[in-house]
């Protein structure tokens, strides 16, 4: 093996520097120092996915398909650091069926293919949501040309078609997304208005029938700790499971902000869903701040990531931890929360922030 310049240093420098010096076992092929074998920095400085695999958890990211097409560093970093991917937008209804009966699977197919090529699993996101619905659907409901019976059939077909398309390729499906208000009442979406609360059980049954091996998840924000909203999910999950409805996972988005503080009782919240026999996951973690970013804010941000990760690692039911983008270069935050940003573990130039270090240390510490 040809040594790179990086490794052409005196043995003493190797011993005292950042490189890992091991015994003769575990050699990766770099030699040249008598009596010891030297592993390259990458072995001492493993990626998040390497550490996650050892810890027995999936580490994921939302993927921006435009960035994946245009940015080589993004492609490589996504492959190196993560073993789970979620489509940030391209599996949403407005993306897959922009006109009625006209499907565009290309970008979602591309992501599934990328994941397969890089040994990654895919979280499916999302089947039933009040947002990012196609215009033909929302206008049809609004003008009365699509009535309740027809709408129910449209929803069933949408779920069945999309889940079947990726059958066997999706590890967890976010079947319903954001169906509760903060006070624990059901969100007043077109689904609730037109179909009544039974749409939730229907959606889970349809999704499960279309791919019985994909875990069907509930998913929402502001449900990290124990509060009215997360308790509404707990009660719903308990009730539906008692009725035999295949609700098998609780997804906690984890969109936090340093100016609001860290939520309370996260471990307790995970534990109660676990006690129902469900899986749990952190599905969209980011930690925003009021811009401009500075060192102190980045340092404050880091333990937010770490504490959510530790909550996941502390719960047997928690099988995956996904960030909603890993570089500020493509984060959704500045576009949606005015004056806020810097919410991901890497800056716009892929520089690692303290948050990245905390994720790495947390994964290295394991369960
Ligand atoms: C966001 C995407 O990141 C944006 O690109 C898009 O414009 C809007 O949606 N909760 C969710 C995600 O479940 O689907 C949202 O993603 C962020 C909040």
Describe this structure in words.
This protein is 42% helix and 17% strand. β9 (255-257), α13 (266-275) and β10 (279-290) form a beta-alpha-beta unit. The protein is α/β, with parallel strands linked by helices. (3S,4R)-3-hydroxy-2-oxopiperidin-4-yl beta-D-xylopyranoside is lined by residues 88-89, 177, 253, 284, 332.
Runs with pLDDT <50, length 5+? 1-41
Classify the secondary structure makeup into a structural class: alpha/beta
Overall geometry: globular
Counting DSSP H or I runs of 4 or more residues, the number of helices is 16
Distance between the termini: 36 Å
CATH H level, superfamily name? Glycosidases
Short description:
By secondary structure, the protein is α/β, with parallel strands linked by helices.
Feature tags:
alpha/beta, 16 helices, TIM Barrel, two-stranded antiparallel ribbon, 8-stranded parallel beta barrel, globular, 367 residues, binds (3S,4R)-3-hydroxy-2-oxopiperidin-4-yl beta-D-xylopyranoside
Layout of helices and strands:
Blueprint: H1 11-16, E1 20-22, E2 37-39, H2 41-44, H3 48-55, E3 58-63, H4 65-70, H5 72-81, E4 84-87, H6 93-96, H7 106-117, E5 121-128, H8 135-142, H9 148-165, E6 172-177, H10 190-195, H11 198-210, E7 215-220, H12 228-242, E8 249-252, E9 255-257, H13 266-275, E10 279-290, H14 295-313, E11 318-323, H15 333-336, E12 340-341, H16 354-365
Parallel strand pairs: 3-4, 3-11, 4-5, 5-6, 6-7, 7-8, 8-10, 9-10, 10-11
Antiparallel strand pairs: 1-2, 10-12
Helix pairs in contact: 3-16, 9-11, 14-16
């Amino acid at each position: 093996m040809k040594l790179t310049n990086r490794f052409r240093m005196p043995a003493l420098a190797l011993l005292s520097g950042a490189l890992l010096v091991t015994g003769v076992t575990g050699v990766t092929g770099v030699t040249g120092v008598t009596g010891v074998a030297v592993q390259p920095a990458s072995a001492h400085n493993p990626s998040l996915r390497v550490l996650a695999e050892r810890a027995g958890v999936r580490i994921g990211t939302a993927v921006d398909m435009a960035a994946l097409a245009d940015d080589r560093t993004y492609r490589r970093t996504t492959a190196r650091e993560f073993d789970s991917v979620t489509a940030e937008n391209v599996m949403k209804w407005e993306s897959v069926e922009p006109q009625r009966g006209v499907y565009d699977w290309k970008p979602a197919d591309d992501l599934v293919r990328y994941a397969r090529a890089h040994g990654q699993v895919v979280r499916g996101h999302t089947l039933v949501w009040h947002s990012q619905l196609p215009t033909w659907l929302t206008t049809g409901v609004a003008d009365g040309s699509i009535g309740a019976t027809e709408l129910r059939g449209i929803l069933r077909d949408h779920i069945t078609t999309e889940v079947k398309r990726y059958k066997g390729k999706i590890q967890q499906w976010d079947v319903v997304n954001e169906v509760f208000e903060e006070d624990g009442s059901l969100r007043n979406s077109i689904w609730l208005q037109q179909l009544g609360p039974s749409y939730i059980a229907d959606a889970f049954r349809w999704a499960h029938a279309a791919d019985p091996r994909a875990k069907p998840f509930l998913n929402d924000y502001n449900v990290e700790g124990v509060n009215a909203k997360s308790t509404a999910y707990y009660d719903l999950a308990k009730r539906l499971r008692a009725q035999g409805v295949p609700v098998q996972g609780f997804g906690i988005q984890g969109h936090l902000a340093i100016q609001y503080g860290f939520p309370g009782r996260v471990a307790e919240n995970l534990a109660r869903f676990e006690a129902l026999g469900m899986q749990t996951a952190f599905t969209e973690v980011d930690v925003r701040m009021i811009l401009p970013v500075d060192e102190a804010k980045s340092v404050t941000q880091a333990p937010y990531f770490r504490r959510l990760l530790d909550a996941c690692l502390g719960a047997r039911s928690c099988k995956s931890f996904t960030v909603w983008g890993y570089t500020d270069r493509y984060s959704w935050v500045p576009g949606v929360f005015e004056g806020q940003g810097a919410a991901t573990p890497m800056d716009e130039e892929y520089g690692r922030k303290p948050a990245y270090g905390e994720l790495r240390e947390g994964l290295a510490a394991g369960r």
